[in-house]
Input
Amino acid sequence: MLNHILKDLRLHRRYLLIFGFFYPLYMGYFGSRLSTPTVAAIFGAFLYALVPIIVFGREDKFKAVGFALSLPTTRREIVQSRYLLGWLLMIVFYLISSVLMLLMPGGQIDLGEVIAVRTVLLTLASMTFVFGTLMPLFVWFGMTGLMVFLVAMQVLGIVFLLLRFVVGRGAIAIVKALPRSISAAIAALGPAGAAAAVLAVLVLVNLISLGISTRVFARKEL
Amino acid sequence: MTAALEIRNLRKSYKGFCLRDVSFTVPAGTITGLVGANGAGKTTIIKLILNLVRREGGEISVFGREILAHEKEAKSRIGFVHETPAFVEDALLKDIAAAVAPYYPKWNRSLFRSLIGEFGLPLDKKFKKLSHGMKMKFSLALALAHDADLLVLDEPTSGLDPVFRRELLERLSGILQDEGKAVLFSTHITSDLETTADFITLIHDGAVVFSLPKDEVRDSWAVAKGGTELLDPARRPLFRAVRETPYGVEALTSAPAGVRSAFPTNVVLDRASVEDIMLFLEEGASNA
Output
């Protein structure tokens, strides 16, 4: 698996350096202008989740996946290494942008907010949502999977708007009740227990996503 | 003789194409040419060997081990050259080589360097800047540098200039100085087989027509040339394909002795080349 990660880092390093310079710089500046890092955490997670997808998409574009699979490896290993590299890149980019957020002249955010457990968990949850959803779609459809994801998000938004229009505010209250009751249940565990529970759920979601991607890739014809 | 590659009852179907119970063996110490017209199923077989596509049935063993059960181990013994080599196009050759080398415990850096020098490949150049022939050479250098026991080459000579084509074929023969090694290469250029292959496996329309030592092909297939008596329905089963020419009738047979006794006079039997067999089968299919 390490060989795959090193291969991808080596063959896509120019792109990674470009992304690695501009994305954290942009997010560092954008985040520093905000009074709370919440928006930066969600927006940044989306941005960083795109980086590994774009890198893997380059292999698809050049039809190099077939060659990768002709090397001494298995399909399962290829998918696993992509998840590992994806998370590695997202976390590195997140750390760099967090540091830049704090160092940016005129910034409004302080260290305590950036390293707060809530901010970190929110960032990890956002990354999990975007990356965990995108990866199976990407493995299945290639770069078209990214479009599928974006269109699905749009459709979901439209559905909620229609629901609100047709059913009224009651529907929104029901939708909002769910996260509220989950939050309440988590809060009941205490700060450490809540953090552990959220982390466990995020790991589970990632494992489910990995499992789906592995199954999809196992059936893929190259 | 140990089998470097053994394929049994391999099946795969696509819309409009079906690979039907393909079975053949590549013995260690031999070069086997996988020959057939375009679309016969050669590339599909090679993709199945490397698990690039999913098989619907059958077994593929590399040096006695089922490839799906021992995928990494089997692939570490295979050197693969694709008809259209595909790497990350904007990567430098040296980076591609450095990315590939760690996968192979037997990667021979000095051999790779010497192949690169011999093939005149510029390591500081991007892959996309290479001509098709150069891409093929680079792909071959990667396949040879890890001392593969089984080389699997998909149409390696297509698009190559005659000089390098000959060099490549000679190099393939040279590899077999080590008797444990074997080569499987697919081609539709039958002249490549005449000079290089020890065994020939002919694929037609998704099925194996024969898989034989080259000399046996010469002895067991023939073209009968004669008059309209060759069209006699009672004796038609002796022939695999028949065609009428302005000068008479020609028929392909895999039973020359039977034809000789069925037509004691007026029929001439010529040895059939692989190209003859391919042409007859293709014409037979298109006339069917």
